[in-house]
Amino acid sequence: GYGSLTIEDTSHTVRHFKSYLPNNNTGAGAVLEKITDKFGNALNFTLDTYGRVTAIGVTPNGSTLIPYLTLTYNTSGCIAQIKNVATSHQMTFSYSTTSDGSINVLNGGYLRRVSYSYNGTNTLWAAEYNYNSAGMLISAVNTTSKLGIHYDVNSVTKRVGVAYETGNGSNGQRISFIYGTDFTQVRSSGSDD
Predict the structure, then answer these.
(1) Distance (Å, whole) CA 131 – CA 52
(2) Biggest CA-to-CA distance, the chain
(3) Is 94 helix (H, G, I), strand (E, B) or coil?
(4) What is the DSSP annotation of 137-186?
(5) Backbone CA torsion sign across 38, 39, 40, 43
(6) Measured in Å, how far apart are the chain's first and last C-alpha atoms?
(7) Are 190 and 171 in contact (CB under 8 A)?
(8) Is 110 exposed, middle or buried (0-12, 13-18, 19+ CB in 10 A)?
(9) Minimal CA–CA distance to 60: which of 44, 46, 82?
(10) How far apart, in whole angstroms, are the C-alpha atoms of residue 67 and residue 76?
């Protein structure tokens, strides 16, 4: 880092920013480091040398820091895990280097899976994301409930033509988009189940 900036609004909430020079992972800029309300309570963001948030905690006025969340990053600089310090519940983020490549928490590139677990052992649910060969998102599916949303993307215009729900062997709502000059027409059909 190389400096700081403080902004106070009309409600006397103070936001403290820490500025950073550009490096291999981020450009130059300022990152929010702390928010203090008019009563002296603070929300604190611990930052690494790249300006990424690695921990979030609360400091009540006149008290000490209470840790809340920890955030870790993989070697590609992508968020790998967010963990609740008090409950041990955590979100794990997995990626692939190509739109259809192998999924791994160590990869960078395409977000392919988000899982929620208790203490990293029992996965309570997970969502998987799939992309077409052009790298555009075409589906997001809850792997536990099998409910999902799918997108039919026009490969030329790069626009969504249809978005539809799936799950439990049936289709839900279907939304179609028709793009004109200076307007978009939206049509829906299907089951609301």
Answers:
(1) 27
(2) 59
(3) strand
(4) EEEEEETTT--EEEEEE-TTT--EEEEEEEETTEEEEEEEEEEETTEEEE
(5) negative
(6) 52
(7) yes
(8) buried
(9) 44
(10) 26
Query: Which pLDDT score is estimated for 167?
Result: 83
How far is 111 from 95, CA to CA, in rounded Å? 5
Give me 181's structure tokens.
């000059």
**pLDDT truncated to tens, each residue of the chain (193 aa)?**
467 889 999 999 999 998 876 665 556 678 899 999 999 999 999 998 888 899 999 999 999 999 999 999 999 889 999 999 999 899 999 999 999 889 988 888 999 999 999 876 778 889 999 999 888 999 999 988 889 999 998 878 888 988 888 887 777 888 999 998 999 999 988 866 4
CA distance 140 to 143: 9
